[in-house]
Amino acid sequence: MAKLKFIRNGKLPFRKLKISINNDSFFLKGDEYKEIELLQGDYNFIMKMDWWKSTNRITINSEGNTINIKHYLPDLFYIIGVIGSTVLALLTFFSLVGIIYISTWVLLFILPQIYFYIAWHDTYFSFEMTSDNRDV
After folding, report:
1. Fewer CB in a 10 Å sphere around the end CB: N or C, the chain?
2. Cα dist from 76 to 34, 116, 122, whole Å
3. What are 56-67's pLDDT values in tens digits?
């Protein structure tokens, strides 16, 4: 049996990531990790969150592998989007800016997500697999 450690990089988005390996599923929150044991061999590896879904094939050859899971859109994208939306919402509430500014901001925040859903939905999640074996 080989130990496999899954690490989800990044806190955002706050939703849970569902990971399925040959019909076994588990969930990861942001900056969380999970260790599982699998026999050596080839496995179908599916990562899914809401409408985002990526499918890959992994080969486990040795003891102690680590899989780092990354999102296509970084945490900074979500932080800037939420802060910008909040500031513009407050400015619009106090009638300091027009509604067109917040509408434009929300469109600029949502359009990249729609683009990646249409064009890159199967590669939204990526991963790097590293071996933890070290000669002592």
Report:
1. C
2. 24, 16, 22
3. 888 887 777 888
